[in-house]
């Protein structure tokens, strides 16, 4: 654990990554505090402390960070990524504590001018310059995100995919497990990237998603203009030397289908 004593705070605890991270920490016997914009559901009896707070306004953040030993920052925003992290750091400074701040980021953001990636890179720099002990983990795209790109087009006559794009999707529970490990350890700065076990084209992934869902559409690749999309075509979002994930995209889809049948 950290050199300080206290709970691990997980921001964005009800999100795609936050949920499995919280479950992993609880399974490991870690004292957990979570944040959410929503009040705690009455049916939720899991053994953690729930703090309702809003990163948009900062309301509730002081209570959330008070006395924590580690913060795993999973709360994210396409438009306000840097502002969220800045409010978090400011709340920590007001508290007088020095928790270990663990931030999850994205592979390739320093070579891709995609706006959200620029915001993630700026947030990495904010974390590193915060005067707090810190760790940053970059991961490739989650399986869920890759599947959603196709699922969102189910009602269309064709499925559009970005031409020349490759993805290296990773299972979110494996990212959560790595974050839990980092949260229990000492601050390590920028750690090695975490990539999925295989690289596949966007078109191939789209066809695989449709096949697993029992539907079919023509796949139409589109060549998208601009520097950000050129970076994707160069493979800036890939980590071939860090293909350490074990769950393949097909296995993810099979698991998703099995859960849907329950």
From TrEMBL:
Residues 12-144 form the NAD(P)-binding domain. InterPro entries: ComplexI_NDUFA9_subunit, NAD(P)-bd_dom, NAD(P)-bd_dom_sf. It comes from the Bacteria. One of its GO terms (molecular function) is protein-containing complex binding. Pfam families: NAD_binding_10. Transmembrane segments: none annotated. PANTHER family: NADH DEHYDROGENASE [UBIQUINONE] 1 ALPHA SUBCOMPLEX SUBUNIT 9, MITOCHONDRIAL (PTHR12126:SF11), NADH-UBIQUINONE OXIDOREDUCTASE 39 KDA SUBUNIT-RELATED (PTHR12126). This is NmrA family transcriptional regulator.
């Amino acid at each position: 654990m950290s050199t300080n004593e206290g709970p691990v705070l997980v921001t964005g605890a009800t999100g795609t990554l936050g949920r499995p991270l919280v479950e992993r920490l609880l399974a490991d016997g870690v004292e957990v505090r979570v944040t959410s914009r929503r009040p705690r559901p009455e049916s939720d009896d899991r053994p953690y402390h729930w703090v309702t707070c809003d990163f948009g306004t900062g309301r509730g953040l002081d209570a959330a960070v008070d006395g924590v030993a580690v913060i795993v920052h999973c709360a994210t925003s396409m438009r306000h990524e840097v502002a969220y992290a800045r409010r978090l750091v400011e709340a920590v400074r007001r508290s007088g504590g020095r928790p270990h701040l663990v931030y999850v980021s994205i592979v390739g953001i320093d070579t891709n001018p995609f706006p959200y990636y620029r915001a993630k890179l700026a947030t990495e720099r904010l974390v590193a310059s915060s005067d707090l002990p810190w760790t940053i983990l970059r991961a490739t795209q989650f399986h869920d995100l890759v599947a959603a790109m196709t699922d969102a087009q189910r009602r269309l006559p064709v499925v559009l995919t970005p031409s020349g794009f490759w993805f290296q999707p990773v299972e979110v529970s494996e990212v959560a497990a790595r974050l839990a490990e980092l949260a229990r350890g000492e601050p390590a700065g920028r750690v090695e990237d975490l990539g999925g076990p295989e690289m596949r084209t966007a078109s191939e992934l789209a066809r695989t998603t449709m096949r697993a869902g029992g539907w079919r559409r023509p796949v139409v690749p589109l060549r998208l203009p601009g520097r950000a999309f050129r970076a994707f075509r160069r493979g800036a979002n890939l980590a071939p030397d860090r293909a350490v994930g074990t769950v393949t995209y097909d296995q993810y889809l099979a698991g998703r289908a099995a859960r849907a049948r329950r």
